[in-house]
User: What shape does this take?
Amino acid sequence: MDHNVSRAQLLRGDLSGEKTVFRPPWALAEIEFIEQCTGCGDCIAICPDTLIIQGRGKLPQMDFTRGGCDFCGDCLTACEPAALKLDSEQASPPWDIKATIQPNCLSMNAVICRSCGEVCDERAIRFKLEVGGVATPLLDLDQCTGCGACFAVCPIRAVTLSSINEPRDQAA
Ligand code: SF4
Ligand code: SF4
Ligand code: SF4
Assistant: This one.
């Protein structure tokens, strides 16, 4: 196996069976990221919502349990080694993360809850009234920026986040 690929997999947890980590927004592709990131921690220190934590190998990763990213760009500006880098070709949002609502969602099981929809600034989650009076969530992936706000507020972790370019779904 290619040395760089195996190191990238190790740092993301793929070889250990642990959940994949999500790098801060605007991160280079994983192999380039681990080469470029010095682990300086400047992005961690500057994030106003303390969403970035130090992970394996001192590399930064998102902790969506703390809330959603509003793409303020402070981490991008702070990253002098350019491991976080604005790509003029890159469409908004600056990563390929998307949310998924799992079948254990309270609303899908006749318990009223609209927490995810209430925090979604993109209005990517709408509730459809079902027979019996409980509304179930519908997620519009085109609108979803992968900000993670819905993951943070779901009381039963029925929201998962995954990278659409990853080979398999991962919970954050
Ligand atoms: S864009 Fe802003 S809120 Fe999001 S991780 Fe970076 S510093 Fe934090
Ligand atoms: S500011 Fe850049 S180089 Fe420093 S830890 Fe964050 S991503 Fe890595
Ligand atoms: S991750 Fe997507 S669905 Fe969830 S709050 Fe953010 S934009 Fe809305």
